[in-house]
Amino acid sequence: MAKNLKNAKRDVTLAMILGIVMLFVVQAMLGVGMTHYVTLEALASSPMPHMLFAENLLGQFGVYWMGIVTLLAGISTANTVLGSVSKILSGMSQDDMIENSILAVPDGCIDILFCCAKKEPYATMCGTVLHPKVVRNKKTYFFGVRFLPGLSLKFKDVTMADFVETEIPLLDVINDKDLFDKITSSRDFNDQIQTFMVKYLKFSEASQRSDKFINLKKIMLAKINETAGQIKVKELADEAGYSVRYINRVFSEQFGIPPKMFCKLMRFQHLLGNLNDFEKDIFDTNLAQLATDLGYYDQSHMIKDFYELANTTPGKYVHLLKESEYKKRIIVI
Questions:
Q1: Which residues contact 163 (CB under 8 A, 6 or more apart)?
Q2: What dihedral angle (degrees, nearest 10) is formed by the CA atoms of 197, 199, 204, 210?
Q3: DSSP 163-184
Q4: Domains of the chain with CATH codes
Q5: Looking at the whole model, is its pTM more than 0.70?
Q6: How far, in Å, CA of 51 to CA of 310, rounded?
Q7: What is the Rg, in whole angstroms, of the alpha carbon atoms belonging to the chain?
Q8: Which H or E run includes 137?
Q9: Mean pLDDT across the chain, nearest whole number?
């Protein structure tokens, strides 16, 4: 409301003072009037002194009249409170005092998020969640980098498993203050991309040169992507030419999560993609076929997995897409 006034500091203060004075005058007049018709002892002992006053003043009609006045006063107060709350929340939202929230669902990705706020910039590396999670953030300028599922880099003091369901300050992982300062101080998207890529490519090349598992990781990721996550660890081990135990150990060390879980996330992401493209009017038929196509035991197995990873059912998810056009707005991190 203050933003709509020319001199908010003066006008709001005067309005508050005037309102308090008017309330005092009205209440004082009412109090004096009551004592002319009802004794102070009777008013003090009555649970509803205003109704007692009205009855002594106008008889039974006064009771009805005061009841109507009381009801209208209550409605007016509720209306004022509701109107004030909406104004307050609107102002807080415009002034960036209310946080937005998005639902993060598992996807196997790692993200780097730079908050480019002028007062308190920060940067974090965020690993995949394994269960749906509400993420809150204020409205400000962000620059983000998302790595495709299966990122595997070597850091000095952090393993890939440390990122799972965790946010770690970027400077605790990559001690590069120059990169942090250049990206968080810029508002030029192309310049931020170039700055990041120059630094990242050098780091990535150095990491890959010392990676003795690089070829094995490429084989495993390729097979998982080709099958949309529909591959058993035994089949993965046979394809790579190693034992199941060895594949489990290497995969968990290099990617931070076991291969079985990673495959589950990839199948879930393929399911999400298919649901986004569904013909909504023939949903039931498509859903049964999709469960078969994605290698679930049956439709109930698919629904159970989906609920575990998205906190809703495929049917409700598609309904949201249809009713609210979530396909254009959903954010999956």
A1: 110, 125, 126, 127, 128, 256
A2: 160
A3: GTT-EEEHHHHS--HHHHHHHH
A4: 2-94 (no CATH), 100-209 (no CATH), 214-328 (1.10.10.60)
A5: no
A6: 56
A7: 32
A8: strand 133-137
A9: 82
